[in-house]
Amino acid sequence: MFTGIVEELGEITAVETLDDACRFRLRGPVVTQGAKHGDSIAVNGVCLTVVDHEGDEFTADVMAETLNRSSLGALKAGSRVNLERPMAVGERLGGHIVQGHVDGTGEILERKPSEHWEIVKVSLPADLTRYVVEKGSITVDGISLTVVDAGPDHFTVSLIPTTLDLTTLGHKQPGDPVNLEVDVIAKYVERMLGDRAQGAGR
To answer: How far apart are CA 161 and CA 117, in angstroms?
Structure first.
């Protein structure tokens, strides 16, 4: 489990392409502190497993399924990425419950800067629309954000200077892909209500 509070802006230092997967080498001085084989680290919102760790770098394998469902396949050496370690039991939940299981990808559609914040408009896949509501939570590239406006095929978020300075959303431009994870509570509620309706029908 993660919280969507990015710990640091890391970097892809190498990408090795395999037959049906790829292996990333990433630099992240904060998230590698105490890291060991088998640990989880969220990379742009995708939960990856540490394969190897040396100094301030670690490697992680990415399966074809993950490459197909996320924007990780577009990353290359030099790409900046949001990094977060799993939350520890007893710590404050600063964002919201994030699993690191990407539901789909969106695209930056528009950026509207103002004096103290920036409004970013993101496209939303049709099958995720029902999970996104105004003032609800959504994860964009691993960042826990509050939805400002929820449209039929898009949503907007308001970014404060800290988010712009310390995450990938500070430099992504219209046309760039982002990973999306909707609030898992909404999916559980939908499933339970659906089961109840089926039970009533029987």
So the answer is: 6
